[in-house]
Design goal:
The chain is mostly helical and 272 residues long. It has one domain. It contains eleven helices and no strands.
Length: 272
């Protein structure tokens, strides 16, 4: 059996790979369960579902209204283009506003309750704590997305869906929300005030969302600002384009903010 050694800087203990996985999953499970103990999480889930369900039925109604006109158009857009893709677009905007509320307490709450010192001095490594909290958030995001994807999938009973484009858009939405969560986790590690963490996260995500996607160099190549725009990469996947460039962007985004969070907590532990 291959053994991976992880040395915690505070305790210098050694852990095997199965132990590391078990510890991370244990923290993730605790974080996931704690979210459902909060009334805020239930309110957020209810509001999200009401907004997205209303949007879904609105797009379905509009599709049936113009269906006869679409029959006369060659290569007309289908159900996926006119219902699923716009629904994912609405979901991305709604969750852009919601994610700061979900991430604001991840670490700042520990700081405010003075439990962060106990957490950092425990036998659990900082890396395990951060990954566990982040994974718990991803589990919660997955619940939201599962309820969302059931809406367009229900249309497969009576019509034909473009499952490739549907999967691409859904996967893009998942990666974007995972990126939102990583950024929110980092912002939560910077302060002991959840509201400040939420506002800071929203400001950062809004900035990355609104960066101009039309800026280009004189040669017409994509500019650095365009590449930094999180909406640009999501939109590409929403159109059914599974580009390695977009997937790498999200993975680097997530990894970068998780590493920053770990570094921030390590610095705080050394200063305490």
């Amino acid at each position: 059996m291959i053994i991976v050694i992880l040395i915690d800087r505070s305790t210098h203990r050694k852990m095997s790979l199965p132990e590391i996985k078990a510890m991370i999953l244990s923290i993730a499970k605790r974080e996931f369960n704690s979210m459902f103990l909060s009334p805020l999480a239930w309110v957020i889930l209810a509001v999200i579902q009401v907004i997205l369900a209303w949007s879904f039925f609105s797009y379905v109604d509009e599709f049936f209204r113009i269906q006869s006109d679409l029959a006369t158009i060659k290569n007309a857009p289908g159900v996926t283009d006119l219902i699923a893709s716009p629904l994912f677009e609405v979901a991305s905007i709604v969750l852009l506003m919601v994610m700061p509320l979900l991430t604001m307490r991840l670490i700042s709450e520990e700081k405010r309750n003075k439990t962060i010192s106990l957490l950092l001095s425990s036998p659990v490594s900082i890396t395990e704590v951060v990954l566990g909290k982040y994974l718990g958030l991803v589990f919660f995001i997955s619940v939201i997305l599962i309820m969302l994807i059931m809406m367009p999938l229900s249309l497969a009973i009576g019509t034909e869906l473009d499952f490739i484009k549907l999967f691409s858009g859904f996967f893009g939405l998942f990666l974007m929300l995972a990126a939102f969560g990583a950024a929110g986790l980092y912002m939560s590690s910077l302060t002991d005030n959840p509201m400040i963490a939420a506002v800071s996260t929203f400001g950062l995500l809004l900035l990355l969302w609104m960066i101009s996607t039309n800026s280009a160099s004189a040669t017409g190549s994509t500019s650095a600002l365009t590449y930094l725009s999180i909406h640009t990469h999501f939109t590409a996947m929403l159109r059914g384009i599974m580009n390695t460039r977009d997937i790498v962007y999200f993975l680097l985004f997530i990894t970068g903010f998780i590493v920053l969070t770990i570094r921030q907590l390590e610095t705080q532990r050394l200063q305490s």
